[in-house]
Amino acid sequence: MQADIPLREAVHNFQPKDEWKLEQGLAGVELHLLDQTRSKEVDGDAPGRDGETPLAKTKFDDKLAVDELPGWDGYVEWEDYPDKKRRAHEILVSQEFPPPPEFQLGPIPGTNPVLEGVRWKLWHRAIGGRLAVVPEESWAIVLKEKSRDMLHLLQFPYNGEPPKRLVTAEAITPNPLHFIRNHGGIPSIEPSAWFLRLDGLVKEPKRLTLSDLQDESRFPRMEKLVTIQCSGTRRIEQIALYAGEGDEMINAPWAEGAIGTAKYVGVSLKKVIKYCGGLVDDAKHLELVGADTYFKMNEVMNYAISVPYSKVKANEVMLVWEMNGDPLPKIHGAPVRAVVMGYIGARSVKWLYRITAIPEPTKAPVQSREYLYFNQQVGKHNQRWTDGIQIQEMPVSSAIMSPWNKQVVVHEGKIEVKGWAYSGGGRWPERVEVSADGGFSWYAVPAENLSQKHKFAWRIWHMWLPCDVEGWIEIVVRCWDNSLNTQPIGVRDAWNWGLHVTSSAHRIRVYSVNKAKELTRARLGEFEKRGTSFVPITRPTEFPYMSWEDYEDYFKRNGPRDVED
């Protein structure tokens, strides 16, 4: 009858010990390619286990990467020296570097820093000279200027966010807790040595010092409360659904804390351009260049993006030197950075030193090849830069900071929920709604529980969410801005290959324990009386749930489980 059983058991003897993990998708990084277009090997060729990629050899030119100017420690100029960029490219292509770490198809490391940035460190050391020690110098600045509570997603280039419990503790984010998304090392530039170059299609190219910018007879002082948000905010939700592009820096696994709000002091870039006599010819964009060194596809450059001049003319681009009443910290771009209101954080260039008027958006990679929003059918197999929308204004979004996902919540019919809401482009959260049933019924956050409205800033909020239901529930938040824009309801609706802009309604699952219910209250009392923890929820209860007398009485009153007629 079952003569095939021994045969099947014999086959199982050849099963690799990790095959169950592979076939269940629990070790996706190790899955071999399934090529169903091939006639012989339908399942594709399972790759062999190659050894580790050799680390980069020590090969550099000490004269290639040098400090460009006195008082500009860690600033290497690349854009003015094409031959130097060519030499750097030759060095990089002559060596082998390890691949990026896997943090999507495999588990995210439980360390802090979560990821080290080995490739980025090796690239700097391969070029050598001044760049060789930039990773260590930058980390020292992180430890000095940022809170010990920070979650270090990437050690170098530094990417970090505050823990959930501190993200919305205050409506204005303290400097040590404000998220940081760097693309290179951290230069240390003396304010007295700093100057800004303005060139390109301006009538009168200028070189302005910090004292010049702070001269109120030339430039009116400007103060603004601004929320800066990384386009990777809440990326961890997209990763949990489907893996996407996996550069450890470009696609770092951000949670809900890659957003912060600060009061900035500086001047409007519009006034500075006017001081230069305005733009000439067909100038329609301004390229902003930072003093940090950036790497892309074996090319070396200074970090650069561009913003439309129409954005500048609206007084929505600032050059700032003060943050929350203090001089701009080094890690946030001192002495002067750009703040582009309502745009993704990548446009707010730190360590700003050059502004060039140009006719078209810059072709620098951060503008033209990264921060692109793709259709869901675009991916590694077919992506082109022109297939993606260059991300500028941030859409409406929100997130729950408390409770936490998978947390057990004991309450008495109402659950306290806290979070933030934001909309870019000069729009603001007008209404925040929260649901305890996965998004079927919504409760509006009372107006008095929302922080003050500002055109370019978030609103933090809290409410007591009615919840009679017990067991696993799904709490969801969505925001409506003043233009009546709202959020896609599911992560799938927002997913894209670059894993940018997780604008979907934020969902968490919590285990609801309603202490207002008599039986629940009694059971919690029993745990407390026995000195037994109620969590983790999965741990079996080691005492009887009811007495045998109550058990037997129940069936006497209600009849047996089964009946005979």
Low-confidence stretches: 1-16, 41-55
**Structure annotation, total helices:** 14
State the helical fraction: 10-25%
Q: What's the N-to-C terminus distance? A: 38 Å
Mean of all residue-level pLDDT scores: 91
List the helices and strands and how they pair.
Layout lengths: L4 H8 L6 H5 L48 E2 L8 H12 L24 H10 L6 H12 L5 E4 L4 E3 L2 H4 L12 E2 L6 E2 L5 E6 L5 E4 H4 L8 E8 L5 H7 L17 E10 H7 L9 E12 L2 E10 H5 L3 E7 L2 E2 L9 E4 L11 E7 L6 H4 L3 E2 L15 E2 L6 E6 L5 E4 L2 E9 L6 E7 L7 E2 L14 E8 L4 E11 L9 H4 L11 E9 L3 H13 L17 H11 L7
Parallel strand pairs: 6-15, 19-25
Antiparallel strand pairs: 1-5, 2-3, 3-4, 6-7, 8-9, 9-12, 10-11, 10-15, 12-13, 12-14, 16-17, 18-20, 20-23, 21-22, 21-24, 24-25
Spell out the key features of this protein.
565 residues, alpha+beta, five-stranded mixed β-sheet, five-stranded antiparallel β-sheet, 25% strand, disordered N terminus
Task: Write up what this structure looks like.
The protein is an alpha+beta fold and 565 residues long. The protein contains 14 helices and 25 strands. A 5-stranded mixed sheet has the order 7-6-15-10-11. The model is unreliable at 1-16 and 41-55 (pLDDT under 50).
